[in-house]
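Annotated sample (chain length 388).
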Amino acid sequence: MNFAIFADKPLEKYKQCDISLILLSLLLWGIGIFTLYVCSGSYGLRAFNDSLYFVKRQLISSALGFMLFIIFATVKMDTIKRFLPLMVGIAIILSFMTFVPGIGLERNGARRWLRFGFMTFQPSEMIKFVVVLYLANYFEKQSKIPDVIDRTVFPAVILTFIMVVSIAVQRDMSTSVFVASLAILLFIVSGSKIFWLVPVMTIVIPLACLFVFLEPYRLNRIIGFLDQDSYLQTLNYQTYAARRAISAGGFWGQGLGSGLVRINSIPEVQSDYIFAGWVESMGFCGVLTYFALLALFSWRGVRCALMTKSRFAAVASFGFIVSIVAQSVLNIAVVGGVIPTTGIPLPFFSSGGSSILFTLASAGFLVNASRNEIDSMETVDIGEVLYE
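Output written by the structure step:
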């Protein structure tokens, strides 16, 4: 018996997926929902007269996210590659649609969202997802070209540049820099020659500095970061309130009730600063638990990248693991005041339908990659040079 869509070999010979990846994804998601419940109740009651407002929205988005999880965990890799041009095209179109009146939603001068009924969608989260798949597919195709002279990186550079620009024009510099950095890392890991990077950086870096100084709120973030003991009631209020919440957590945490006063003093705690709520509720033990789960998730994902027999799956798995872990570390560094505020969400935790949607889709792809592991001790080297 053969599956036409979900398998390339008889059912009885089909490899079991990595159950630990599924369990770790569910654990991280469940902790995220719990933390959102703890952190968002007071603000939801004040702003929307519903203490479960953000939890309900996150659960709706999670339901859609688990649908994507199942899809990307079960369909063949060839099917994903077949629909990839459509996904890239939709992501870019949606990204530029943020400027269409009546559809694009403006908040604090930035156009990063689309409104669909009572739900909103952030196209940059989809860009994060598809850029990994696109580059993994492109590198695999290039590796199959026998003549080295015919191999080129420029189509990938140009399309990646378009995707990055589509985010930057939305006044979302942190996400555009993150996507660009992720793409460059995939170029390097895949063995591509990056001679083009030097002239590009000589243009991009001055432009990035210019964008920082042209936007007052970006400049204020840097000023606040450099002088964290000042502006405690203005520029540094979020960081100051987050530190108070973290300190109040102690070793064992304040539980579900007593810590709410400090948690609720953090503006938008349900989004970028949600980790402070987790730490105050669960303490240092909660921090250790979170990092242990993240490390296990990272290990299982990297193992998939190293063991899969598909170059496409290997590069994409590595990209998704780096994306999730890097966003997690950057978000926590912001909450701790180690780096300036970036606006990068905490995967599995931060309130935001788009983020949880594509985080679960990424986790589903990792599960799919684990089903394509080779049976022998030979592994695919994701760092093997594509361009000799």
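Annotation: Residues 155 and 286 are 45 Å apart (CA to CA).
Annotation: The first helix runs from residue 19 to 48.
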